[in-house]
Design a protein that fits this description.
alpha/beta; six-stranded mixed beta sheet; about 20% strand; five-stranded mixed beta sheet
């Protein structure tokens, strides 16, 4: 059985077609899960775990180890205050790392992919061994294109250990284009804009009708929703911890806000704030406690979601200091979004210049496309062209399911 997998920076999902109907893999009652995994102790080697499991007649890594995924992973970490929580591991795949760190990163990806494979197998009553996995045009990377190549190698290696016999890769905007293709009765040119958690990807495509979808060109920007969360945290929360008030360097606050970047998190926790004036000292020391930066990031993410539809959000920072809270308004959100919007609009301007043919429609998907400010920026970049809004969470995975069931041979 073949499935499509959207291994996302913030959330992951999987789907396939059953009797001609799109069917999403369920993770409990949810259609997707937060891309996070928690290990009570160290990150175990899945190859060793599998060998031990086989010896004890327990057939899967999942059955042998105590890994938790998604929101359960975050909640367990916050409850225990110990162990290893890895959030947004995809953000690490493209960065330079020594062999031991790379090995651990592969282990993490293996557990997530096996979690997806086993969930699909249980739901469909079939052994899932083949997948089409989405990838951004450019991974977040410190090594340019070599970083993207490394990221694909890591995912491929992890998929093999996780039990997949064969995997192929499809750029995420191309996947979203295949989903949109299924909705179009007549042929047209379309611009696909996928604004995800870690990256923003664009494709110019010929879609619809009886002909096969054609992806003409793709573009990518290694920025997305996680950058908005960090920016919102810097705008609204970090002044309450002394940013731009104390002599603590700004990069300390950036490191604290970047929960998806393990090296930055480790660097922040190594800092000593004993000589910072109160109340900043106590708040910074509280933020260094296990789970605190995760709580702060969750608060920023929830505030971002509230501000997409409301004028104001009230954030409780009582886990740092009793009674501490912040009132956030649309102005904070606008300031947090603006750097990303400017980068995205420069990318869209490059698209217009490189491919001057006017598309018949602009199809927008990806979790960050929920933001009214972000959607308005896309409209502003292509005035007068109809903008079609896809499901923010499921546009890419739906297209990957199409690719897995209808176009596998073309991807091999």
């Amino acid at each position: 059985m073949q499935i499509g997998i959207d291994l996302g920076t913030s959330y992951s999902a999987a789907a396939t077609y059953v009797d001609g109907e799109l069917t999403l893999v369920r993770f409990g009652e949810a259609k997707q899960f937060r891309t996070a995994v928690f290990f009570p102790e160290v990150v175990p080697d899945p190859t060793v775990a599998r060998r031990r499991a086989a010896e004890s007649a327990a057939a899967t890594v999942e059955g042998f180890q105590q890994a938790l995924f998604g929101d359960d992973a975050v909640e367990a970490y916050l409850e225990y205050g110990d162990g290893n929580l890895i959030e947004s591991p995809k953000s690490m795949f493209g960065y330079r790392m020594d062999p031991q760190v790379r090995k651990v990163v592969v282990h993490i990806a293996t557990y997530i992919l096996e979690h997806i494979r086993l969930a699909a197998g249980r739901q469909f009553g079939d052994d899932v061994r083949t997948a089409v996995i989405g990838r951004p045009v450019h991974f977040r990377s410190s090594m340019g294109e070599k970083g993207s190549e490394q990221a694909v190698e890591i995912i491929r290696e992890a998929a093999a250990v996780a039990g997949f016999d064969s995997v192929s890769f499809l750029e995420e905007p191309a996947a979203a284009a295949m989903h949109y293709h299924k909705r179009l009765a007549t042929r047209q040119t379309a611009l696909i804009v996928d604004i995800g958690g870690g990256t923003t990807d664009v494709a110019f495509a010929e879609l619809g009708g009886d002909a096969l979808p054609t992806i003409v060109r793709t573009w990518g920007l290694a920025k997305g929703g996680t950058d908005l969360d960090v920016n919102l945290s810097m705008q609204a929360f970090m002044p309450q911890l002394g940013n731009n008030v104390t002599r603590v360097p700004v990069h300390h606050f950036v490191e604290a806000a970047s929960v998806h970047n393990l090296p930055k998190q480790r660097e922040f926790r190594r800092q000593d704030y004993r000589f910072v004036d109160e109340p900043w000292r106590a708040r910074l020391q509280a933020l260094r406690q296990p789970g605190a930066t995760t709580r702060l990031n969750q608060t920023a993410e929830r505030s971002k979601i509230v501000l997409s539809s409301e004028e104001r959000a009230d954030a409780d920072l009582g886990f740092l200091e009793t009674g501490l809270g912040v009132h956030i308004d649309r102005e904070h959100m606008h300031e947090a979004v603006q750097p990303f919007v400017e980068r995205m609009q420069r990318l869209l301007a490059e698209v217009r210049e490189t491919w001057p043919s006017v598309p018949a429609s602009v199809f927008v998907t990806g979790g960050t496309s929920r933001s009214p400010v972000v959607k308005a920026a896309v409209r502003e970049s292509f005035p007068g062209i109809p903008m079609v809004e896809g499901d923010p969470s499921l546009g890419v995975v739906s297209g990957l399911a199409v690719a897995a069931t209808e176009f596998t041979a073309a991807l091999a």
